[in-house]
Write a structure and sequence with these properties.
The chain is built from 15 helices and two strands. The chain is elongated and about 75 Å long. Helix 3 runs antiparallel to helix 10 and helix 7 packs parallel to helix 13. It is mainly alpha-helical. The longest helix is centred in the N-terminal third of the chain and has 52 residues. The chain starts with a helix and ends with a helix. It folds into two domains: 365 residues, no CATH class; 68 residues, no CATH class. 80% of the residues lie in helices and 1% in strands. The protein has a two-stranded antiparallel ribbon with strand order 1-2. GO terms for molecular function: phosphate transmembrane transporter activity. One of its GO terms (cellular component) is membrane. Pfam families: PHO4.
């Protein structure tokens, strides 16, 4: 080969490499556009479905618009809220991102369609007095404004990487539209006070309970001389507690469609399921532990499967409980349009529930990975033991809150539990560091402690700020949307 030929091949290789880089860049830029395109197509299909059902009927245009907005809200719930259930399992490497998305999509849809309540509060936990609305038309505009504003706020929060409460977003949207439509007197300020209290109670409860379980695992298993023997003794107990807690959680929050269960009955069901789970898991854990080395890496393998099961159960319960955030206002609009009246509680038509279930799944698949990564690995480093504590805390906190009669946010609980695990690790690390260093090395240890923060403070401040302003931000948005809708459509 001549020198000229060699130069030509080198030039050709460079050109081909540039083309390859251009193709990769195009794919990277085009990937978000594909997600947006699929999401837009689903929103359009939801609107067309409503048109098929209600086409030609009086007020059908409003129902079609509401169906599209309900689909948009459901997509945003899937993109933001579901990360709290799957993030810890992915961050602990117990699940791949693809596996987490598949499990969450299936469990969320199953929870919404099988156990989602067929009766939903249209006024979001009694925030607005329906009788304060002037007429049905005003009520429908208020629900449309609440849907659009809450969806826009959750969309913005997802974009900036902040997991927020979709329940609080809907509550804020209903409140803002209600105040604009009927004045401040129409708001149930006692309910709003409880919701504001839940901003603090939910994450604190979740964090304290998660930290408590992590302390127990460290003390009773991880720092024992024979870790495997300790795991054989305590892992079945923890699995029993987990299954009992989730059985109680699902009985309280996820089985409204099938049967109404009070807290005492739910606790008895949980105790029975927990005891049975202990009996079944004890020999399985013993068999799994055979031949494992006496180190923490072996313990991670023993907690991986319970963590995956807990994540799936959380997703099922979330789908059953939070689908109403997307379809509650939509169901209210459908009812008001059909009967010419508004009610505190209405039945959810099956096609409305399908929009909510599919929308959550689409949002998770298309846009969920961003917040799954953030919750699972960017706030603090998680392993299967820590992530298991987060999942267990989420179920137990809901039970405690139900017993206390407090409205809580599943988002605040789960993320608060992640923060609780992270801050407990910081405290525990500092404690052990001070116990092991000699006196003259304390100054160096203090510098190391300040340098090594196990919880990213930037994420902590961003998330807390987003939590605080979710209700007022969505309320202001909703008030503006309602003003535009009511004044420019008359």
């Amino acid at each position: 080969m001549s020198d000229q030929d060699g130069k030509q091949w080198t030039t050709l290789d460079k050109d081909l490499n540039r083309i390859s880089q251009l193709e990769h860049a195009t794919l990277y830029i085009g990937r978000p556009m594909v997600g947006l395109g699929v999401a837009l197509a689903f929103i359009i299909v939801a609107g067309l479905g409503a048109a098929v059902v209600f086409g030609g009927q009086p007020g059908s245009a409003l129902v079609i618009a509401a169906a599209a907005l309900g689909a948009y809200m459901a997509i945003n719930i899937g993109a933001n809220d579901v990360a709290n259930n799957m993030g810890p399992a992915v961050g602990a490497n117990a699940l791949t991102m693809g596996g987490a998305i598949v499990i969450a999509a299936l469990c969320e849809s199953a929870g919404a369609l099988l156990a989602g309540g067929d009766v939903v509060s249209t006024i979001s936990k009694g925030i607005i007095d329906p009788s304060a609305m002037a007429n049905t038309q005003v009520f429908i505009w208020a629900m449309l404004a609440a849907l659009l504003s809450s969806a826009l706020w959750v969309n913005l929060a997802t974009w900036i990487g902040a997991p927020v409460s979709t329940t609080h977003a809907v509550v804020g949207g209903v409140m803002g539209a209600g105040i604009t439509a009927a004045g401040f007197a129409s708001v149930n300020w006692a309910s709003m006070g409880l919701i504001a209290a839940s901003w603090v109670v939910s994450p604190l409860l979740g964090g304290v309970i998660a930290a408590g379980f992590l302390w127990f695992i460290k003390a009773q298993i991880m720092y024992q001389d024979d870790k495997i023997a300790a795991a054989r003794r305590w892992v079945p107990v923890l699995i029993g507690i987990m299954m009992g807690a989730f059985a109680t959680y699902l009985a309280i929050k996820g089985l409204k469609k099938l049967i109404s269960i009070d807290l005492t009955t739910a606790l008895l069901i949980g105790a029975a399921i927990g005891g049975l789970s202990y009996v079944i898991s004890a020999p399985l854990v013993r068999r799994q532990s055979e031949g494992l080395e006496n180190r923490n890496k072996s313990l991670k393998a023993m907690f991986a499967l319970p963590l995956v099961i807990s994540a799936a159960l959380l997703s099922f319960a979330h789908g059953a409980n939070d689908v109403a955030n997307a379809v509650g206002p939509l169901a209210a609009i459908v009812h008001a349009n059909a009967f010419g009246e508004f009610a505190g509680k209405v039945n959810i038509p099956h096609w409305v529930m399908v929009i909510g279930a599919l929308g959550i799944s689409f949002g998770l698949v298309l846009f969920g990975p961003k917040l799954i990564k953030m919750v699972g690995s960017q706030i603090t480093k998680l392993n299967p033991m820590r992530a298991f504590c987060v999942a267990l805390s989420a179920a137990i906190t809901v039970i405690v809150a139900s017993w206390l009669g407090l409205p809580v946010s599943s988002t605040h609980i789960a993320v608060g539990a992640v923060f609780g695990v992270g801050f407990f690790r910081e405290w525990y690390h500092d404690k052990r560091l001070r116990e092991t260093v000699v006196k003259e090395a304390v100054r160096v240890a203090d510098e190391e402690r300040r340098r090594r923060k196990l919880v990213r403070r930037s994420h902590f401040m961003t998330i807390v700020a987003a939590w605080i302003i979710t209700v007022p931000a969505s309320a202001i948005l909703s008030a503006a949307v309602f003003f535009v809708l009511s004044h420019f459509t008359n």
